[in-house]
Amino acid sequence: MTDTPKTPGPDGSGPDTTGPKKPAPRSHGRLKISATLKPRALMEHRPALASAWEARVITLFPAAFPGVLGESLTGKALAEGLWQLETIDLRGFGVGKHRNVDDTPAGGGAGMVLRADVLAAAIDAASDGVPTDRARWPLVYLSPRGRPFDQATARRFAACDGITLICGRFEGVDERVLEDYGIEEVSLGDFVMTGGEIAAQAMIDAAVRLRPGVLGNAASTEEESFAHGLLEHPQYTKPQEWRGRAIPPVLLSGHHGEIARWRRAEAERITRARRPDLWKKHRDPENGDG
Question: Fewest C-beta atoms under 10 Å: which of 4, 45, 63, 170?
């Protein structure tokens, strides 16, 4: 093994110990992290507009956000301040040494339930500066037993000043919190997920894209699926012929009236075949749910 050469001292007898010492290198990960009860703003340096729609998310996993919401058009709109996103870390409101947020179900059973006192404290913090009128600012718990989320709900949320979403975990939340705060329950679909974070991102995306200036083309939201209670018609682009399949001639005719009629007919055909529930509601709005 070869010794590393040492710089001689002033008298040439040994290493120099009189010069200034360099500070010991520090690890990039040695940052002090502490829980805070203040909502965490994502993308801090974005310009905030007075009319910006805001989503506040109560979650055990704030690092999951913005996730896909930070990409593409929603991400660009977030960076430009067309909408805002805040996360409230539920763990910061936990009790005891280990910041517990849940406990066993009353009456027995498997799994754990989010505690009423913990969740209430998080809701109170998330409600700071928020309108108390739920028509202007809904308070929503993402739950598989909630009312199904649809395009009409997305439009309602988009028309509000903002929304607070509660991401559940484990077996759910204490029912008393839902009752006391009058929380609206909304479901992404008839299936069960491990938590509400993905559902929250989906609902935020559906609402944000309807906000002015986000898509840039208002006609896009008027012609897409569910805008008129029907699934969207087929779409085509270049090349004109691909693997023996040609674009329907009517779309290349330049006759806007014929194109509109073709698209309408195709939307009705697809809806009737794939979503008879939507077709029934479309044909008979008053009795579509019956």
Answer: 4
Which helix H or strand E contains 263, and what residues bound it? helix 256-274
Say how far apart CA 53 and CA 49 lie, in whole Å: 9
Name, in order, each residue with C-beta under 8 angstroms of 102's C-beta and a sequence gap of 6 or more.
112, 113, 114, 115, 118, 169, 170
State the residue for tokens 């007075």: 50
Say what the pLDDT of residue 285 is: 80
Taking all residues of the chain, what is their mean pLDDT, rounded to a whole number?
Answer: 86
Q: Is a pLDDT exceeding 90 seen at residue 271?
A: yes
Distance in angstroms (rounded) separating the CA atoms of residues 43 and 70: 9
In angstroms, rounded to a whole number, what is the distance separating the alpha carbons of residues 269 and 273? 6
Helix, strand or coil for residue 207?
A: helix
In tens, the pLDDT along 183-211 reads 999 999 999 999 999 999 999 999 999 99
Do the beta carbons of residue 183 and residue 172 sit within 8 Å? no
| Entry field: residues in the chain | 290
- The pLDDT of residue 33 is 37
**Per-residue buried b or exposed e for 215-247, using 16+ beta carbons within 10 Å of the residue's own CB:** beeeeeeeeebbeebbbbbeeeeeeeeeeeeee
pLDDT digits (tens, 9 = 90+) for 47-73: 555 679 999 999 999 999 999 999 999
For 76, 147, 213, the CA distances from 225, given in Å and listed in that order, are 23, 20, 20
Structural domains of the chain ordered from first start: 40-208 (3.40.1280.10), 229-283 (1.10.1270.20)
